[in-house]
Amino acid sequence: MQSSIIIADDHPLILKGLNDFLLEKKYNVLASAVNGKDALELIETHKPEIAILDIQMPYYTGLEIAEKCKALNYQTKIVLITFEKDEAIYKQAKSLGVYGYVLKEFALTEIEQCIDTVSKDIPYFSPELLSYLEVESTPKELETLTPTEKEVLKHIAQNKTAKEIGDLMFISNRTVEKHKSHIIKKLNLAPIQNSLLIWAKENQTLLE
């Protein structure tokens, strides 16, 4: 069963392009809007599972809609679509519980993966955005790791198996797995296969 979706963007061409693309891919698009006020009304009326919203729109921005939905305890998962590669906006989106953040220049290549990931209750943030922001900032979560956990993470980034890590660090496989489980919790990673490996690869330069 496909997730129900509403979309909103004040650029008619982008809205039409996204709408046509999603319908062509057989997604369940209920309605679309060209401003934040109409988008919020569509969320209130249809209670869609996912709302794909432009950040900059007349009346309400995508972030303001996310804030209102959070305050009203709506279950709709908000996905923001934007040209903005701004750390402050990204942090605000995360603090409002936004489920997805897709850059417009990659929208048609990423939106399917984003919807499918968000439908499984896993947040999706554009890899291009994350790599752009990582240049400027070290994830705070990394600072919560112990030196041993950081060493385990560094070995994971080098594709080492639990056994190889254990041999290198003179600890048992079981202890390595325990460290991995603590790291996943501390980094707040989704409990999906390879999430730790993906994170370690993306942040390899921070582990040097």
Task: Kindly estimate the percentage of residues that lie in beta strands according to DSSP.
Answer: 5-15%
CATH class of the largest domain: Alpha Beta
CATH fold assignment of the largest domain: Rossmann fold
Q: What average pLDDT do the residues reach?
A: 85
> How many strands?
6
Helix/strand/pairing category? alpha/beta
Organism: Xanthomarina gelatinilytica
GO molecular function: DNA binding
Keywords: DNA-binding, Phosphoprotein
Modified residues (4-aspartylphosphate): 54
Map the helices and strands:
Elements: E1 4-8, H1 12-24, E2 28-33, H2 36-46, E3 50-54, H3 62-71, E4 77-82, H4 87-95, E5 100-103, H5 107-119, E6 124-125, H6 127-134, H7 147-157, H8 162-169, H9 173-186, H10 195-202
Parallel strand pairs: 1-2, 1-3, 3-4, 4-5, 5-6
Helix pairs in contact: 7-9, 7-10, 8-9
Descriptive keywords:
single chain, 208 residues, alpha/beta, Arc Repressor Mutant, subunit A, 6-stranded parallel β-sheet, WalR-like, phosphoprotein
